[in-house]
Write a structure and sequence with these properties.
Elements: E1 6-9, E2 24-27, E3 30-33, E4 36-37, H1 50-67, E5 75-82, H2 92-98, E6 107-112, E7 121-128
Parallel strand pairs: 5-6
Antiparallel strand pairs: 1-2, 2-3, 3-7, 4-7, 5-7
Length: 131
């Protein structure tokens, strides 16, 4: 059954493996993501180091929002899931690169969780398109 007005969004080269879920969904002017891993979109694999995972996670978040018809300026909330609290500092460089204006940053919250399969960072995003 197709739900009118809602559509799945995928990030080319980044999958959830065999799990039949999209990377995100758009309904009206809202975009909601599933978990966005720091996978390299060229290989669909996780780098071993946390900094590379963070870089790719933010890149994949941008790609998702753009694939849904938005821009990073439409992002209103980012939830960051980290394997370990000591990884918090790796989030700031890609964050500041994506959101350099302190007057125009989305809300952000971090949680420490037991991420699977070598994953050290995962993002979730909510975007509201247009004003």
């Amino acid at each position: 059954m197709k739900y009118e007005g809602k559509r799945s969004i995928e990030v080319p080269g980044v999958t959830h493996g065999q799990t039949p879920i999209p990377m995100g969904a758009r309904k009206g002017n809202f975009i909601f993501s599933s978990g966005i891993a720091g996978k390299d979109p060229q290989t669909d694999t996780l780098p071993e180091d946390a900094q590379s995972q963070a870089k790719f996670a933010f890149q994949n978040m941008r790609t998702l929002v753009e694939a849904g018809g938005g821009t990073v300026n439409d992002i209103v909330r980012v939830t960051v899931f980290l394997k370990d609290g000591s990884l918090r500092p790796i989030v700031n460089p890609p964050w500041l690169e994506m959101f350099p204006d302190p007057e125009d940053r989305p809300a952000r919250h971090a949680q420490i969780v037991d991420l699977p399969g070598g994953m050290q960072i995962q993002l979730e995003v909510i975007a509201v398109l247009g004003d």
